[in-house]
Amino acid sequence: MLLWLSLACGGGPIEDDKNLDSALDSGGSDTQSQDTQDTQDTQGSDDTGDTSDSAEECGIDNLQFRAEVRNNGAPCENNTCTQPFAVVGVVFNPCQEAIELPLTAGCLVNEWVIIQNNTPTPVTPAECNPNPSTLGIPPQQKREAFTEWSTASSGQAKLVIKFNNPQQSGADLNFNIQ
Fold first, then answer.
1. How buried is 19 (Cβ within 10 angstroms: 0-12 exposed, 13-18 middle, 19+ buried)?
2. Which residues have C-beta within 8 Å of that of residue 49, sequence separation ≥ 6?
3. I want to staple 95 with a disulfide (CB 3.0 to 4.6 A). Which of 44, 58, 75, 154 is the partner?
């Protein structure tokens, strides 16, 4: 299975934003890493658009974790995807200052799980450094990890993402597969 892993799943721990590019690892012929430092939030955000948070009010507890599904890099229309599709774990920083997110391992996502007919199918990121690290998230930006999925059956599904942050258990999303 072809895995697409974000900058947080590079070959080593990510210490700060200056080391993000150096943390990327191509990982061989079947694995690629990609830096996804978008400055705009994506559809389905829990973001209220309020950017008035002051530095003393904003921190790790304000980070927004969510699950997304995408076709060709864009959110699936009406949460209905065709195969192959990407499953994405997103963390968005709505604050006016950068936040350092502690991770229990060198990847943003610990595991993606697709559940269909009460049967879970997990995928664990390849090349995830087991050492704890931190991920710097600039103000009003997001970091994401994703993997391509092409082995699900048509019908209803649930995506469950387990993040490598001890304060965030995960995010989930119900969607349909055509």
1. middle
2. none
3. 58
